[in-house]
Write a structure and sequence with these properties.
The protein has 326 residues and is of the alpha/beta class. It has a domain of 183 residues: Rossmann fold (3-Layer(aba) Sandwich), CATH 3.40.50.
Length: 326
Amino acid sequence: MDTLIPPTIDVHLTSGDLRAAMEADVRAGLTATPKQLPPVYFYDDRGSRLFDQITRLPEYYPTRAERSILEAHAGDMVRAAGADVLVELGAGTCDKSRVLLDAMRDNGCLHAYVPLDVSDTTLWEAATSLSESYPGLSVRAVVGDFHHHLDRLDAPGRRLFAFLGGTIGNFDPAQRAAFLSGLVEVMCPGDRFLLGTDVVKDRGRLVAAYDDAAGVTAEFNRNVLHVLNRELGADFVPARFAHVARWNERDHRIEMWLRSLDTCTVHVADLGLDVGFGAGEEMLTEISTKFSLDALGDELEACGLVVDASWVADDDEFVLTMARRP
């Protein structure tokens, strides 16, 4: 019987680092034209609960579609990868990881799991649970940022890097290129990369997924204002901002904005910053790029990756792509 191996945690990102990043991001975003805020600041405890509600809405297909692919093809994926170490980028609660970990265990190739995320509390809770669920599994949690700490994910064996949930769609083209190129630099011969991406489809279906009838996504969008009020001493009145979701045809992406319903000035006490909003002025809070299979393959190839296989959900709603460094 396998022995339970206690998890370990490496911290490369402190609360001070996160605070400094928030201050820099918010100052830059609120003084930009148009104004913008990174979507990472949606996700305090309340925002995480709201997003969990979103994933269960009838309009929001990506989570269900990706899960269906994993449950149907995880065995094929781990055999194609030939890996004994799973490295998950942006792991969160590590829920989807269990499907891949089960498949690796069933194929006799499960040795280690290395989840990376910015939240030390969530990551440690997930790592502890997984160590108990998979006796003999070595779990090394890494608190860090996948834009800066990919080189901290070493592990003996062949690694399968997983970046799920369509999160890469939140990056603009330059950010995607930097991320993918950085990943290629740390990949070794034999490593594989499993990427989850949403697919271009009917525009009405896309918009509905980000503007649900129950208004949960609208509340999730406005949650970033609650976060800034609490963390930076801002005085946003969230009810004075309307949720807007629209399709950007040129860039093949859904954009979420917050539209000021009237003219106002917001004071951000911790930054010593006063920010004016005109009536009808919009602030960008998230992009979610959608890909065609050909365009995705070209983008991966341009960054030094070769596509080995793809698995597509029913109705071409979502795709998981396996790639390698040649």
